[in-house]
Write a structure and sequence with these properties.
Chain lengths: 255, 268
Amino acid sequence: MARTAQEAAQLGALLNKKYRYFDYKWDLVFWVTALPVVAAAADITKLLFAGDWDFWTDWKDRQWWMTITPFAMIIIPSALQYIQWLAWKFPTGCTYTAVGLWLVSWLGRWLQWDVFVNYPLNFVWPATIVPAAIFTDWILLKTRSFIMTSILGGLAFTIGFWVANYITLAPFLQPVDLMGSIVTLADVQGVSYLRSATPEYLRMIEHGTLRSFLEETTLVALVFGATLCTFGYWVGQAIARWLAIWPIMRFMKKV
Amino acid sequence: MATRIAVDERAPVKARYGPIDWMGGWKTCVWGSLAIVVLTALHWWYTSRFAWTAGIDASSPEFTKYFRSLVWVQLIVIGAGTGLWWGWLVRTGRQLLAVKVTPDEEVRRIAVFWGLISMTSITLYVMASFWPNQDGSWHQTAIRDTALTPAHIPMFYWWFPGGITMTVGTYLYGRYRLPKVYGPDKGFPWSFFFLIAASVTEMMQVAFNEWAHSLWILEEIFAAPFHWPFVTYGWLASGIFALWAETIIRLLGIEKEVEDAAAASPAR
């Protein structure tokens, strides 16, 4: 929609307005200092809802990893997407969170898993959601609708999650012979490195008959994962609307 | 009287640096945030250096020397430090409430407040992401631990209570230094209610976590249901966004007041 000359003049005046106290530092401080708490919220949500699938290469399976992890990992990006869209009309919340999560995940894996206890990083690398988050932000930009973003974005987030991480995971899915059995390279990592507090992992993953779908196995899991992801998106929206935005300038009455 | 003098003597600081200079109002943000990062690094180095040589057997003299002593040092320092800081904020703040402040001073205080939010943000990251990663790696290589093991000691007895120290301390700063936003006459803000609730419930959840591990499951499966309250309590920290919004609204108000005052006295 074209602006009128009056609107353009008002906008120009607003853009060129000289402030006494507002400068770039307020923006810089906000965007930098919000990142730790945002990344922490995203990381703790991932760790305690789906952490086991994110910690180990051999847990990155087609049954639980790609269904549970996108659900856990879209919650906080969705919250930030709402906040940044509401405040600035920036379609950047998911990507902002994803970059923060990427930073703290790698810092945690490097210092606490690799340096502290000597697990190799190619066994404990964290999944990335940066490409999936860019897709989801792009969908909000194009649709300008949280409902559409929850449906299309949930699907895009899950597929983006799988595609982006499959590139890293694929080499570890190569078959190898281990003591007469054909297993994946990831399985070899799993039995080679001590995990004293993760027993019975073979009982927890790949049970049931999902494999009977043969070449559709991944597709079925992805679409179900997208359904969960849409639900997770609205959990994030609820967090942003009721816990971050609703409290602004609200006070409990004095007793 | 000494407290009053200290309050009054803050004025010369303003003359050297403006309220929005990095070494003026933003000094708390810069140095405070850096201090927490350095403290985290030192804590991590200490744990990494001694965990595997002195931290395995809680009945050994080495454990007492390097880790049981650390628990006591942490508890004493954070307990005393928190009491002194909160006490200072309340004691000086009650007097400041009666003092009319200039726009420059109020803006400086908002910048300090944002600095405290920054320190809170980093503290919440360290307690909710950095140390839980070490906790996970420790569980996977040592056997099930107790409430007093090298990975738990920094997290449970420094950073978790540190979260309460920072969130409540930031509120006390706002209550007495920014009365037009959080003054006692306005009631208790929901933003701080959620943020403080996040840090307090996380601390309380630690006890349930240990109790539940002892009852139901010895292994450390991270996605176990009794870990989920850590997540939902953590979401309460979203109230931190309302703090930025509430103070930026006040900042806009100050800008408007300064503009109006300038317009009312054109000869100035």
